[in-house]
């Protein structure tokens, strides 16, 4: 029984080996399950950008990019299976879009010498490249996000949050727990009271949490949610008539599909972001022309310009630019994962580059170094307009509290280094 | 053809009561052991270890554990995920507290701790039965997950609430962590599986197993003929907990390396292991293997066939998998309630009589 099935799987796996010599970008996506609403647009954006590069420019530096999609369902076991099955195909970079899977992969990619890019998620202290040699989380991480939220609230309150009460509604997982430490530090610094309310996976049941919010009457509610949890939370907030403009989500809780179910009641809901929103960029004309109109769009092709589509596209853009940088550094078109890592560490994103890519002012300008894998950590704020059904940027990209975050990154990465006998250094 | 039993005489009691009394079965068993221990470790790579063989071995241990409780002793349990979590967290605490001790000892101790917890949650089984016991074990499942989420001591106060397996070895060979070689992790799990299967098989053939089955078949009658229900039920919970704890420890330390309790050991895990036992066959050690192999391999095979060969979109294949597993469970419940083990038993009887069925 066992043997016959395994031989079958072995034969099939061998028959399915891909043609080499393409630049392989695995896409650990999730188009099924309670988190699919976020996974689909991100994956579509990621795929479409590489399709655009192949169609318009003939690939990256003349070598075609190949996206290998693998369904994880936001499940760590399937994520491991996906990682193992794609790493042998010459995978250059992993972007799992899941903090749980990221934690699995951090030691594995380091041992296998493949870079991991966790843009705006994953383990925050990976910003310290001296300890996490193969993990990158530029241009911003969770702690930047948490500090960005507090900075924005400080601004709104004339620089004083003393005596205010802020509730954190979070996904009860590694992802949702990540900002708590920073928020606790910030609450000490600025004198506000923090109430943490966990919501268990998948997050459809939040009555008790919102009942507590109704009773405690916090001044602001901050949300660290993902998937179906977001729309339920916004609906519940509307039900208890919590003022939407005092409700701020992290960047994973601020997309169209999160606010649309609540209809007009979601008007005024805010979310932080690390890249621009909307489709008012020249690159979207190219995507329309070369990808969508040519019938080559990933998925249903109806996500272009959504917040998470843009993020997926941005992630793909950063990967492609890192691959170009790697090609320049090593003088070869056919780069290996190790070269890709060097490319990521030497990545420079400036205005001219963004302009040339058709994405002027889409994201921050930054350069990555071995000491800093985390980028500048600039955080903007967007707000939902239910009438026109659009997100718009209401606060420009501003720096976060690096003093608090830097110390926490140092502390957490030192703990990781001690646990795993890593000698922090820059080779 | 296969089962040539002519001339295979049993001349002693020991011969007659051995685990595989039929010669062909016995030789096949030796061949499987020889292949598993002697050949696969030399051929194995990371993909085979991490995507197929490790989950198969570990789920087999869990399925054997649950089968003892549900299949042999008749005590329905929905707390498997929670008990695996106990094994995982016990192993984590031991690994971080005593780094110099061999992994073998940690895993065994983790199994022992889980056995104690399992007995504790099994105590209500003396009073309640059937569905009500299922609900009580369900409470254990949610309580344990909540506990490991709530009390930071269990995850050593890490910021994310995750537990990460540090690098640990046994006899100088790395077993956990990313640098552990595939063959070592495979052999480590295989040794535990072989040990558990052997123990389970022999327990179920002896006095203890017979008391379990007596309780399962009719507890009042069992009491009347002198079976002590306290002892029978508590031993079933303890042995089952021991195996499930081992599987949870291996699942965390060797297979995944980093675990988040709600996601890895949620109610889904309890159902998955229960499905393995039901599909494989209640009250059968072979059934535990078959069920685990089936539910571990099915998604991989479907993915390879659907995505890599036929080129279908990944989400369609993922949805198909749900449909197929659901349909199969219904088909098995209707057509063959005793699971794959019964199919195998029937096939074997046919083969033994072949080519003269009458």
UniProtKB/TrEMBL annotation, chain A:
InterPro entries: Leu-bd, Peripla_BP_I. Residues 1-21 form the signal peptide. SUPFAM superfamilies: Periplasmic binding protein-like I. Keywords: Signal. CDD domains: PBP1_ABC_ligand_binding-like (cd06334). Residues 28-385 form the Leucine-binding protein domain. Gene3D superfamilies: 3.40.50.2300. Pfam families: Peripla_BP_6. Belongs to the leucine-binding protein family. PANTHER family: BLR6548 PROTEIN. This is ABC transporter substrate-binding protein.
UniProtKB/TrEMBL annotation, chain B:
Its main location: membrane. One of its GO terms (cellular component) is plasma membrane. It is found in: Cell membrane. Pfam families: BPD_transp_2. Keywords: Cell membrane, Membrane, Transmembrane, Transmembrane helix. It is a multi-pass membrane protein. It comes from the Bacteria. GO terms for molecular function: branched-chain amino acid transmembrane transporter activity. This is Branched-chain amino acid ABC transporter permease. It comes from Leisingera aquaemixtae.
């Amino acid at each position: 029984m066992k043997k016959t099935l395994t031989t079958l799987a072995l034969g099939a796996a061998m028959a399915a080996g891909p043609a080499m010599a393409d630049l392989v970008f695995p896409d650990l996506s999730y188009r099924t399950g309670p988190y699919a609403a976020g996974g689909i647009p991100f994956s579509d954006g990621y795929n479409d950008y590489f399709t655009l590069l192949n169609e318009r420019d003939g690939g990256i530096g003349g070598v075609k990019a190949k996206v290998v999609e693998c369904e994880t369902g936001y499940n760590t076991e399937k994520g491991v299976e996906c990682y193992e099955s794609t790493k042998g195909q010459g995978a250059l970079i992993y972007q799992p879009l899941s903090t749980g899977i990221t934690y699995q992969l951090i030691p594995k990619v380091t041992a296998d010498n493949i870079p991991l890019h966790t843009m705006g998620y994953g383990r925050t202290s990976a910003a310290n490249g001296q300890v996490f040699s193969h993990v990158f989380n530029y241009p911003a991480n969770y702690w930047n996000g948490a500090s960005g939220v507090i900075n924005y609230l400080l601004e709104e309150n004339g620089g004083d949050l003393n005596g205010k009460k802020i509730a954190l509604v979070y996904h009860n997982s590694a992802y949702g727990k990540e900002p708590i430490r920073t928020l606790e530090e910030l609450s000490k610094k600025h004198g506000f009271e923090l109430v943490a309310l966990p919501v268990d996976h998948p997050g459809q049941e939040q009555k008790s949490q919102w009942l507590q919010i109704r009773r405690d009457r916090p001044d602001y509610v901050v949300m660290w949610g993902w998937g179906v949890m977001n729309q339920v939370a916004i609906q519940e907030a509307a039900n208890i008539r919590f003022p939407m403009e005092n409700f701020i989500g992290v960047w994973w809780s601020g997309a169209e599909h999160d606010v649309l179910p609540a209809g007009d009641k979601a008007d005024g809901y805010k979310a932080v972001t690390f890249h621009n929103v909307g489709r008012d960029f020249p690159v979207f004309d190219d995507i329309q022309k070369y990808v969508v109109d040519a019938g080559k769009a990933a998925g249903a092709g109806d996500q272009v310009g959504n917040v998470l589509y843009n993020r997926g596209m941005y992630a793909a853009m950063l990967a492609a630019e890192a691959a170009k940088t790697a090609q320049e550094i090593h003088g070869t078109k056919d780069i290996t994962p190790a070269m890709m890592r060097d490319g990521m560490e030497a990545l420079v994103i400036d205005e001219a580059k963004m302009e040339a890519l058709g994405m002027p002012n889409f994201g921050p300008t930054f350069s990555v170094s071995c000491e800093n894998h985390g980028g500048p950590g600039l955080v903007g704020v967007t707000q939902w307009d239910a009438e026109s059904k659009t997100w718009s940027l209401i606060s420009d990209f501003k720096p976060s509290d690096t003093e608090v975050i830097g110390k926490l990154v140092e502390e957490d990465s030192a703990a990781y280094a001690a646990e795993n006998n890593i000698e922090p250094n820059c080779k | 053809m296969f089962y040539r039993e002519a001339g295979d005489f049993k001349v002693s009691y020991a011969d007659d009561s051995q685990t595989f009394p039929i010669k062909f079965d016995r030789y096949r068993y030796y061949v499987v052991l020889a292949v598993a221990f002697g050949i696969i470790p030399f051929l194995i790579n990371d993909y085979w270890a991490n995507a197929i063989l490790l989950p198969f071995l570990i789920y087999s241990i869990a399925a054997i554990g649950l089968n003892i409780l549900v299949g042999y002793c008749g005590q329905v349990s929905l707390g498997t995920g929670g008990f695996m979590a106990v094994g995982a967290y016990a192993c984590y605490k031991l690994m971080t507290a005593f780094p110099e001790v061999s992994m073998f000892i940690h895993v065994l101790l983790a199994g022992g701790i889980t056995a104690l917890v399992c007995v504790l949650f099994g105590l209500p089984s003396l009073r309640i039965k059937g569905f009500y016991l299922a609900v009580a074990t369900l409470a254990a499942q949610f309580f344990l997950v909540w506990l490991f989420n709530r009390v930071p001591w269990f995850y050593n106060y890490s910021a994310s609430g995750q537990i990460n397996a540090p690098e640990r070895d046994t006899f100088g060979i790395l077993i956990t962590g990313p640098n552990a070689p595939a063959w070592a992790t495979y052999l480590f799990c295989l040794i535990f599986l072989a040990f558990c299967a052997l123990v389970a098989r022999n327990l179920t053939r002896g006095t203890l197993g017979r008391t379990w089955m007596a309780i399962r078949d009719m507890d009042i009658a069992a009491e009347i003929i002198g079976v002590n229900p306290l002892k029978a039920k508590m031993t079933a919970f303890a042995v089952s907990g021991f195996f499930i704890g081992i599987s949870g420890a291996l699942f965390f330390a060797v297979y995944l390396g980093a675990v988040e309790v709600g996601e890895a050991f949620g109610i889904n895990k309890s159902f998955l292991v229960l499905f393995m036992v039901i599909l494989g066959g209640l009250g059968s050690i072979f059934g535990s293997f078959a069920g685990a192999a089936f539910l571990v391999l099915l998604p991989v095979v479907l993915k390879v066939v659907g995505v890599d060969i036929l080129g279908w979109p990944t989400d369609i294949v993922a949805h198909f998998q749900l449909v197929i597993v659901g349909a199969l469970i219904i088909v098995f419940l209707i057509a063959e309630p005793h699971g794959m083990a019964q199919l195998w038993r029937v096939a074997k009887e046919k083969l033994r009589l072949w080519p003269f069925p009458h």
